[in-house]
Amino acid sequence: MTEDWFGSWDARPEELNEILSRNPSLRGMLHGYLAEEKVKRVWFEGSEDVTNLFSPDDHDRDLKGDWILDYEGEEIVVEVKSLQSNHVERIDDPESEVEWNGKFQCDASDRRPVTLPTGETMETTCLVVGQFDLLAINLFEFGGEWRFAFAKNEDLPRTPYSGYTEEQREHLIKGTMAITLPLEAPFHDEPWTPLDETVAER
Question: In this structure, are residues 140 and 146 in contact, taking their beta carbons and an 8 Å threshold?
């Protein structure tokens, strides 16, 4: 049974609005967690093709990702990221095919040791190729609607950082990525295409 936090705290909506108005970092954190719930409810929770859907414990060092699910008999790790509000731009040019430009971060919150597929261990904020299967990007800042873009892990661009060797860059995902609406490759407006490709490649 879900805890009634607002009831137990005797919290009022206007109090929450005041706190959120004063704390941009809290808004960003709460918005990110809300995005995780929204992508679950919109795309995964009611699908007959998705089973065993759960969120791993934040303290589980061996099981990473925001959602774990089974799809076509395969375990899938989903990572959810959100647009950076200060990098969102509405394109008002009627001749432009692009309606929105934005950026999002696709990295860890701090440097930590990672092991590459080559067996090499290094410290980086980058996520490792293959660390998750499906990326879901929260596009709420593109017009105030709960919609998402999806991409297969292996299709994401690699880091261009010159401080890493060429071999290391092959296994590290780019930390900040650009995205537009309408979407362009490697992004999809539904998760099933990248999921089907992932399953077919296993």
Answer: yes
Sequence-separated (6 or more) residues with CB below 8 Å from residue 106: 79, 81, 127, 135, 156, 173, 174, 175, 176, 177
Query: DSSP letter at 159?
Result: P
> Residue 105 to residues 18, 43, 75, 186: CA-CA distances in angstroms?
27, 22, 25, 16
User: Distance between CA atoms of 71 and 132, rounded to whole angstroms?
Assistant: 14
How far does Cα 87 stand from its chain's mean position? Answer: 16
Give residue-wise pLDDT tens across range 160-190.
999 999 999 999 999 999 999 999 999 999 9
CA-CA distance, 97 to 121, in Å (whole number)? 43
In the chain, the DSSP E strands lie at 50-54, 67-71, 74-82, 89-90, 100-105, 107-115, 121-126, 134-138, 148-152, 176-181
Q: What is the pTM of this model?
A: 0.90
Beta strands 134-138 and 74-82 are parallel
**The residue type at 177:** M
pLDDT digits over 73-119, tens only?
A: 999 999 999 999 899 999 988 888 899 999 999 998 888 999 999 99
Strand partners, 136: 80, 150
Answer whether the bond into residue 186 is a cis peptide, omega within 30°. yes
